[in-house]
Amino acid sequence: MRRKLEEERVRLEETRIPSLDRRPADFSFSTERGATVILDATGAAFAYAEREIAKPFDLQIRSGERIGLVGPNGAGKTSLLRVLAGQVPPSSGTVRLGPAVVLGWYAQEQENLPPNQTAIDYIRRLRPFTEQQAISFLGTLQLDREAGLTQIGQLSVGEKARLQIAGLILGGANFLVLDEPTNNLDLHAIESLESALEEFPGTILAVSHDRYFLERICTRTLELRDGILRDYPGDFAWYDEHPESGVVLTSKSAQRA
Protein backbone atom coordinates (compact mmCIF):
# COMPACT_ATOMS: atom_id res chain seq x y z
CA MET A 1 0.00 0.00 0.00
CA ARG A 2 2.80 2.45 0.84
CA ARG A 3 4.34 1.85 -2.60
CA LYS A 4 0.94 2.39 -4.17
CA LEU A 5 0.57 5.69 -2.32
CA GLU A 6 4.05 6.80 -3.35
CA GLU A 7 3.27 6.02 -6.98
CA GLU A 8 0.07 8.04 -6.67
CA ARG A 9 2.03 10.94 -5.18
CA VAL A 10 4.41 10.91 -8.18
CA ARG A 11 1.47 10.99 -10.55
CA LEU A 12 -0.08 13.91 -8.67
CA GLU A 13 3.22 15.79 -8.60
CA GLU A 14 3.35 15.67 -12.39
CA THR A 15 0.10 17.64 -12.56
CA ARG A 16 0.60 19.98 -9.61
CA ILE A 17 1.71 23.58 -9.76
CA PRO A 18 5.52 23.81 -9.98
CA SER A 19 7.35 25.87 -7.38
CA LEU A 20 8.83 29.12 -8.67
CA ASP A 21 10.65 29.70 -5.38
CA ARG A 22 12.70 27.00 -3.70
CA ARG A 23 12.04 28.49 -0.26
CA PRO A 24 9.07 26.68 1.31
CA ALA A 25 6.19 28.62 2.75
CA ASP A 26 6.35 28.75 6.54
CA PHE A 27 2.97 27.46 7.69
CA SER A 28 2.72 27.09 11.45
CA PHE A 29 -0.43 26.70 13.58
CA SER A 30 -0.70 27.46 17.27
CA THR A 31 -3.95 26.88 19.14
CA GLU A 32 -5.67 25.20 22.10
CA ARG A 33 -7.35 21.83 21.65
CA GLY A 34 -10.85 23.01 22.61
CA ALA A 35 -13.72 20.95 23.98
CA THR A 36 -13.66 17.17 24.35
CA VAL A 37 -16.52 16.85 21.85
CA ILE A 38 -15.80 19.11 18.90
CA LEU A 39 -18.90 18.36 16.83
CA ASP A 40 -22.11 16.48 17.56
CA ALA A 41 -24.57 15.77 14.73
CA THR A 42 -27.89 14.13 15.62
CA GLY A 43 -30.36 13.01 12.98
CA ALA A 44 -28.61 15.28 10.49
CA ALA A 45 -29.61 14.99 6.84
CA PHE A 46 -29.16 17.17 3.80
CA ALA A 47 -30.98 17.47 0.51
CA TYR A 48 -30.51 19.99 -2.29
CA ALA A 49 -32.78 20.61 -5.27
CA GLU A 50 -34.79 17.48 -4.46
CA ARG A 51 -31.59 15.40 -4.37
CA GLU A 52 -30.81 13.56 -1.14
CA ILE A 53 -27.14 14.25 -0.42
CA ALA A 54 -26.97 12.56 2.99
CA LYS A 55 -29.54 10.38 4.73
CA PRO A 56 -30.08 11.03 8.48
CA PHE A 57 -26.97 10.21 10.49
CA ASP A 58 -25.47 10.63 13.95
CA LEU A 59 -21.83 11.69 14.09
CA GLN A 60 -19.50 12.74 16.88
CA ILE A 61 -16.05 14.23 16.34
CA ARG A 62 -13.77 14.38 19.35
CA SER A 63 -10.84 16.64 20.12
CA GLY A 64 -7.63 15.75 18.31
CA GLU A 65 -9.23 13.56 15.65
CA ARG A 66 -8.03 13.86 12.06
CA ILE A 67 -10.76 12.79 9.68
CA GLY A 68 -10.74 12.43 5.91
CA LEU A 69 -14.09 12.64 4.08
CA VAL A 70 -13.95 10.65 0.85
CA GLY A 71 -16.30 9.34 -1.80
CA PRO A 72 -16.86 9.27 -5.55
CA ASN A 73 -17.05 12.47 -7.59
CA GLY A 74 -20.52 13.98 -7.39
CA ALA A 75 -21.36 12.26 -4.11
CA GLY A 76 -21.86 15.61 -2.36
CA LYS A 77 -18.76 15.72 -0.16
CA THR A 78 -18.41 19.50 -0.32
CA SER A 79 -22.12 19.95 0.42
CA LEU A 80 -21.85 17.70 3.46
CA LEU A 81 -18.70 19.50 4.58
CA ARG A 82 -20.59 22.80 4.43
CA VAL A 83 -23.31 21.36 6.64
CA LEU A 84 -20.80 20.11 9.20
CA ALA A 85 -18.96 23.45 9.09
CA GLY A 86 -22.18 25.38 9.69
CA GLN A 87 -22.05 27.06 6.28
CA VAL A 88 -25.54 25.78 5.48
CA PRO A 89 -28.13 24.27 7.85
CA PRO A 90 -29.03 20.58 7.66
CA SER A 91 -32.37 19.74 6.05
CA SER A 92 -33.29 17.99 9.28
CA GLY A 93 -31.66 17.21 12.59
CA THR A 94 -28.96 19.25 14.30
CA VAL A 95 -25.23 19.92 14.00
CA ARG A 96 -23.65 21.53 17.08
CA LEU A 97 -20.11 22.59 17.88
CA GLY A 98 -18.72 22.08 21.36
CA PRO A 99 -17.85 24.94 23.73
CA ALA A 100 -14.62 26.83 23.04
CA VAL A 101 -14.46 25.44 19.51
CA VAL A 102 -13.04 27.91 16.99
CA LEU A 103 -13.76 26.68 13.48
CA GLY A 104 -11.51 27.55 10.55
CA TRP A 105 -13.05 27.00 7.10
CA TYR A 106 -10.91 26.52 3.97
CA ALA A 107 -13.12 26.93 0.89
CA GLN A 108 -12.16 25.13 -2.31
CA GLU A 109 -13.66 27.94 -4.42
CA GLN A 110 -12.06 30.62 -2.20
CA GLU A 111 -15.36 32.49 -1.90
CA ASN A 112 -14.79 33.27 1.77
CA LEU A 113 -12.10 35.84 0.93
CA PRO A 114 -13.23 39.50 0.53
CA PRO A 115 -12.39 40.28 -3.14
CA ASN A 116 -12.25 44.08 -2.73
CA GLN A 117 -9.84 44.14 0.19
CA THR A 118 -6.09 44.01 -0.21
CA ALA A 119 -4.26 41.07 1.29
CA ILE A 120 -2.62 43.39 3.82
CA ASP A 121 -5.97 44.84 4.90
CA TYR A 122 -7.37 41.32 5.28
CA ILE A 123 -4.45 40.28 7.49
CA ARG A 124 -4.64 43.42 9.62
CA ARG A 125 -8.35 42.81 10.31
CA LEU A 126 -7.38 39.46 11.82
CA ARG A 127 -4.38 40.63 13.82
CA PRO A 128 -3.34 44.17 14.91
CA PHE A 129 -0.25 44.24 12.70
CA THR A 130 1.45 47.35 11.43
CA GLU A 131 1.64 47.44 7.65
CA GLN A 132 5.27 46.33 7.77
CA GLN A 133 4.47 43.48 10.15
CA ALA A 134 1.69 42.34 7.80
CA ILE A 135 4.08 42.44 4.84
CA SER A 136 6.66 40.44 6.79
CA PHE A 137 4.08 37.85 7.82
CA LEU A 138 2.79 37.47 4.25
CA GLY A 139 6.39 37.05 3.12
CA THR A 140 6.72 33.91 5.22
CA LEU A 141 3.86 32.47 3.13
CA GLN A 142 5.51 33.40 -0.18
CA LEU A 143 3.29 36.45 -0.70
CA ASP A 144 5.43 39.48 -1.52
CA ARG A 145 4.70 43.17 -0.96
CA GLU A 146 3.13 43.58 -4.39
CA ALA A 147 0.69 40.75 -3.70
CA GLY A 148 -0.04 42.25 -0.28
CA LEU A 149 -1.07 45.55 -1.85
CA THR A 150 -3.22 43.88 -4.52
CA GLN A 151 -6.97 43.44 -4.17
CA ILE A 152 -7.68 39.84 -3.29
CA GLY A 153 -9.96 39.38 -6.29
CA GLN A 154 -6.97 40.05 -8.55
CA LEU A 155 -4.65 37.51 -6.92
CA SER A 156 -3.86 34.14 -8.48
CA VAL A 157 -5.56 31.01 -7.14
CA GLY A 158 -2.27 29.98 -5.52
CA GLU A 159 -1.91 33.34 -3.76
CA LYS A 160 -5.51 33.11 -2.56
CA ALA A 161 -4.84 29.62 -1.24
CA ARG A 162 -1.93 30.92 0.85
CA LEU A 163 -4.04 33.82 2.06
CA GLN A 164 -6.77 31.44 3.21
CA ILE A 165 -4.19 29.49 5.17
CA ALA A 166 -2.95 32.78 6.65
CA GLY A 167 -6.49 33.41 7.86
CA LEU A 168 -6.64 29.98 9.49
CA ILE A 169 -3.34 30.61 11.26
CA LEU A 170 -4.23 34.09 12.51
CA GLY A 171 -7.80 33.14 13.42
CA GLY A 172 -6.60 30.70 16.08
CA ALA A 173 -8.85 27.90 14.82
CA ASN A 174 -8.73 24.64 16.78
CA PHE A 175 -11.07 22.84 14.35
CA LEU A 176 -9.92 23.00 10.74
CA VAL A 177 -12.50 22.11 8.08
CA LEU A 178 -10.62 21.88 4.79
CA ASP A 179 -12.10 21.47 1.31
CA GLU A 180 -9.33 20.38 -1.09
CA PRO A 181 -6.57 22.39 0.63
CA THR A 182 -3.74 21.22 -1.64
CA ASN A 183 -5.38 21.91 -5.01
CA ASN A 184 -3.80 25.31 -5.74
CA LEU A 185 -0.48 25.02 -3.92
CA ASP A 186 2.92 24.22 -5.39
CA LEU A 187 4.82 21.15 -4.21
CA HIS A 188 6.92 22.91 -1.57
CA ALA A 189 3.86 24.65 -0.12
CA ILE A 190 1.96 21.34 0.01
CA GLU A 191 4.79 19.69 1.91
CA SER A 192 5.01 22.64 4.31
CA LEU A 193 1.26 22.54 4.90
CA GLU A 194 1.32 18.79 5.53
CA SER A 195 4.16 19.19 8.03
CA ALA A 196 2.28 21.98 9.82
CA LEU A 197 -0.91 19.92 9.98
CA GLU A 198 1.00 16.96 11.41
CA GLU A 199 2.04 19.24 14.29
CA PHE A 200 -1.40 20.87 14.62
CA PRO A 201 -2.75 20.16 18.14
CA GLY A 202 -6.41 20.62 17.22
CA THR A 203 -8.94 18.69 15.14
CA ILE A 204 -9.08 18.27 11.35
CA LEU A 205 -11.90 17.34 8.96
CA ALA A 206 -10.76 17.37 5.33
CA VAL A 207 -12.05 16.55 1.86
CA SER A 208 -9.24 15.75 -0.56
CA HIS A 209 -8.58 13.76 -3.71
CA ASP A 210 -4.90 13.65 -2.76
CA ARG A 211 -4.38 10.13 -1.45
CA TYR A 212 -0.96 10.93 -0.03
CA PHE A 213 -2.32 13.94 1.88
CA LEU A 214 -5.07 11.80 3.39
CA GLU A 215 -2.65 9.00 4.28
CA ARG A 216 -0.21 11.42 5.91
CA ILE A 217 -2.72 13.59 7.81
CA CYS A 218 -5.89 11.65 8.59
CA THR A 219 -6.33 8.74 11.01
CA ARG A 220 -10.09 8.22 10.63
CA THR A 221 -12.08 8.04 7.41
CA LEU A 222 -15.69 8.90 6.55
CA GLU A 223 -17.10 7.84 3.20
CA LEU A 224 -20.14 9.42 1.55
CA ARG A 225 -21.63 7.23 -1.16
CA ASP A 226 -25.21 7.15 -2.49
CA GLY A 227 -26.37 9.32 0.40
CA ILE A 228 -24.99 6.95 3.04
CA LEU A 229 -22.23 8.01 5.44
CA ARG A 230 -19.88 5.25 6.59
CA ASP A 231 -17.25 5.42 9.32
CA TYR A 232 -13.90 3.61 8.98
CA PRO A 233 -11.70 3.17 12.07
CA GLY A 234 -8.42 3.90 10.31
CA ASP A 235 -6.52 6.02 7.83
CA PHE A 236 -6.95 6.08 4.06
CA ALA A 237 -4.82 2.96 3.60
CA TRP A 238 -7.08 1.07 6.03
CA TYR A 239 -10.16 2.35 4.21
CA ASP A 240 -8.70 1.30 0.86
CA GLU A 241 -7.71 -2.18 2.06
CA HIS A 242 -10.73 -2.93 4.30
CA PRO A 243 -13.83 -1.65 2.48
CA GLU A 244 -15.99 -4.07 4.47
CA SER A 245 -14.98 -2.48 7.79
CA GLY A 246 -17.14 0.64 7.37
CA VAL A 247 -19.97 1.22 9.83
CA VAL A 248 -23.08 2.87 8.42
CA LEU A 249 -23.85 6.00 10.43
CA THR A 250 -27.60 5.97 10.81
CA SER A 251 -29.69 8.12 13.12
CA LYS A 252 -30.97 6.56 16.33
CA SER A 253 -33.67 9.20 16.58
CA ALA A 254 -34.83 8.39 13.04
CA GLN A 255 -34.87 4.67 13.88
CA ARG A 256 -37.05 5.32 16.94
CA ALA A 257 -39.43 7.40 14.85
Structural summary, described in words:
The protein is of the alpha/beta class and about 260 residues long. It has a single domain (about 1-100, about 170-255), classed as Rossmann fold, CATH 3.40.50.300. The chain has ten helices and ten strands. It has helices at about 1-15, 75-85, 120-125, 130-140, 145-150, 155-170, 185-200, 210-215, 235-240, 250-255, and strands at about 35-50, 50-60, 65-70, 90-95, 105, 175-180, 205, 220-225, 230, 245-250. The strands form two sheets. It has a seven-stranded mixed β-sheet, with helices on both faces. A three-stranded antiparallel β-sheet has the order 2-1-4. Strand 8 and strand 9 form a beta hairpin. It starts with a helix and ends with a helix.
Order of helices and strands: HEEEHEEHHHHEHEHEEHEH
How confident is the prediction overall: mean pLDDT?
A: 89
Looking at CATH, the homologous superfamily is P-loop containing nucleotide triphosphate hydrolases
What Rg do the Cα atoms give? 19 Å
The percent of residues in helical segments reads: 25-40%
Unreliable stretches (pLDDT < 50, length at least 5) are: 1-6, 8-22
CATH fold field value: Rossmann fold
List the helices and strands and how they pair.
Elements: H1 2-15, E1 37-48, E2 51-62, E3 66-70, H2 77-84, E4 92-97, E5 103-106, H3 119-126, H4 131-140, H5 145-148, H6 157-170, E6 175-179, H7 187-199, E7 203-207, H8 211-217, E8 220-225, E9 228-232, H9 236-241, E10 247-248, H10 252-256
Parallel strand pairs: 3-7, 3-8, 5-6, 6-7
Antiparallel strand pairs: 1-2, 1-4, 8-9, 9-10
